[in-house]
Amino acid sequence: MKIHTLMLRQGKNRKRPTTIKDIAKALNISVSTVSRAIRDTYDVGQETRSKVLEMAAQLKYRPNLNATGLVKSSTKKIGVVIPAITNYYFSTVITGMKDVARENDFQLVLYISDDSSSSEADILRNLSVHSVDGLLICLSSETTDYELFAELMEDGLPIVFFDRVPSEINTSKVVQDDFNGAYRATTHLVRQGYRRLAHITGPSGLQLTEDRLAGFVAALRDAQIQLNPDWVIHSGFSRQHGFEDTLLLSAMSERPDAIFAVNDPKAIGAMLACRTNDIVVGAEMGVIGFTNDPVAEIVTPTLSSVAEPAYEIGRKSCELLLKHIKKENFPGETAVLSGELFVRDSTKK
């Protein structure tokens, strides 16, 4: 399995972060009182501390870990923020992370965002920068604002993104080769004789979504097949989203004869929608996914899919985060891991 490592460009203009002086000025109290309130010392009353913390939240203040008196020793804990745990991909990713963490005497602390940007933001806001040594994060499908991540990193907390990653944040990232995986999946459909190809994908703006869409479009172009923009549908990543997207495609006056789904749950949703409309998967509608979830070999017909190297993504993500934790000026890297195409009955025309 090849891992391509790319160096990231550093440097980005940012506004001046809020300091305890700003909080003190807003409340007309001394800087020392604000400092003691934030550190929850015994000589600050609860009412004063509540006012300080409320103002700190309003001003989006986060403590500087490098400031005098705030530097702490390692917790030997790594936070992991993921959209869900009840699927094969994320459970396998966590296994890879866990193995590397254990090898280095670290523990994982798991946070579930339920694929919600508001829940994800709540996790980050309530996360004490002193509770973990670093964070491993897969973005929710709704996330478009990355300010909280940037603030945590400015305060000295190392963060590594994996799978769903932001292009705007300069840090290490670990992804599968989404473009080439999508290209191989689409090319396979063309070689099987399908000519009217649709793509049911994730929310626009996510790097994963954009790369898989680009691979799909490139494969159509190279096969000299016209892209129908009406057959590219953006929605969520769930089976229900795949079901609903396919119902939309099936109701069109001219419908596609094959679907490339952004992941296996959406592909299985597409197959269920075909069954609802008495469309024979394979013979009348080819369907291919992206994950190679074990359920792909259990459903009928079995599902063709591009495998994601989930365990390796987990291991590589944790290895990079530990490098950031141990070395303050470790340069960010992007690791791109390749997958494999598995051909099954859902694409047999």
TrEMBL record:
<dbReference type="InterPro" id="IPR010982">
    <property type="entry name" value="Lambda_DNA-bd_dom_sf"/>
</dbReference>
<dbReference type="InterPro" id="IPR046335">
    <property type="entry name" value="LacI/GalR-like_sensor"/>
</dbReference>
<feature type="domain" description="HTH lacI-type">
    <location>
        <begin position="18"/>
        <end position="72"/>
    </location>
</feature>
<dbReference type="InterPro" id="IPR028082">
    <property type="entry name" value="Peripla_BP_I"/>
</dbReference>
<keyword id="KW-0805">Transcription regulation</keyword>
<keyword id="KW-0804">Transcription</keyword>
<dbReference type="Pfam" id="PF13377">
    <property type="entry name" value="Peripla_BP_3"/>
</dbReference>
<dbReference type="GO" id="GO:0003677">
    <property type="term" value="F:DNA binding"/>
</dbReference>
<protein>
    <submittedName>
        <fullName>LacI family DNA-binding transcriptional regulator</fullName>
    </submittedName>
</protein>
<keyword id="KW-0238">DNA-binding</keyword>
<dbReference type="InterPro" id="IPR000843">
    <property type="entry name" value="HTH_LacI"/>
</dbReference>
<dbReference type="Pfam" id="PF00356">
    <property type="entry name" value="LacI"/>
</dbReference>
